[in-house]
Amino acid sequence: MTLSFTSALKPSPALSVSYLERRRLFFILMTLPAVIYALVIGVWPLAQGIWFSLYEYNLLKPARTHFVGLGNYIDLLSDPVTRGAFVNTVIFTVGAVTVELLLGFAIALALWRDDRFNRICLALILIPVTITPLVVGLIFRALLLADYGLIGYYLAEFGLSDPRGLFANPSSALATLIFVDIWEWTPLVALILLAGLKALPGDILEASEVDGATALQRLRIIVIPLMLPSILLALTLRTIDAFRIFDSVYVTTGGGPGNATNTLMLHAVKQGLEFFNIGRASAISNLTLICIAVIAAGFILLIRKADRKANGR
């Protein structure tokens, strides 16, 4: 009985199973460091934070630690400082993200044409994104100080700001922080929306122009509906990032004056590192995480819906 050449080269079933097992084991070993890293850096601190939030746990009084269940969360809901921090966070997020989206869309439209001048402008406006929020906060704090700030001194001198500076006035501190965030992150929104604009089908735009549609009509009927996935993506990224604002607030106002610029993340840090109330700080962090998860889930559903609508499904 003779065997064909192909059948002779075909590996036996036992050999194939052994090869697949070794291949599977190889990929498991390759992904194992990443899994361990995620567990140590992400999952374990999260689980520990949830555990601490269920206890009355203060580092200054470790002997008085006891289980309170949802007591920390209930106390936060009735705490006026926490409610004020939540309101400040929402105002900051809505104000900053709204202006960043509108301004970023305008910049993206201005840089839509692919030429050398627009590429140079895009590279220049992306410079703020490369600076960390902590450094941006320090820069604007130095610029807006009423005593010797390059801008703040003249604003106070001509009566355009509080004599103590924009960050020292409760009515202008939060708005100034929103302006700082807009300055830093509008270029990122513009870049995301510009990528969406460049992905638009050119034949549809050319056909609409031939049919006599004006630029405003093309923008309203064609561009914006097809851009919805990119718009929602930019909204998702910026909303999540703005809701957990901490760095720039910490180095500019520290949550003041009073609690005028106190945010949820800053409030959590104060509870944990100033008052050493680990239980309450963990509860605040978990509430912030829940809010971010709800925001992200809502935006993801909207993105999927917009993507199906844009693709005609």
UniProtKB/TrEMBL annotation:
Q: Which residues form the signal peptide?
A: none
Q: Supply the PROSITE patterns for this chain.
A: ABC_TM1
What are the ABC transmembrane type-1 domain coordinates in residue numbering? Answer: 86-299
Please give the chief subcellular localization of this protein: membrane
Q: Where in the cell is it found?
A: Cell membrane
The record's section on InterPro entries has: MetI-like, MetI-like_sf
Listed name of the protein: Multiple sugar transport system permease protein
The species this protein was found in: Rhizobium laguerreae
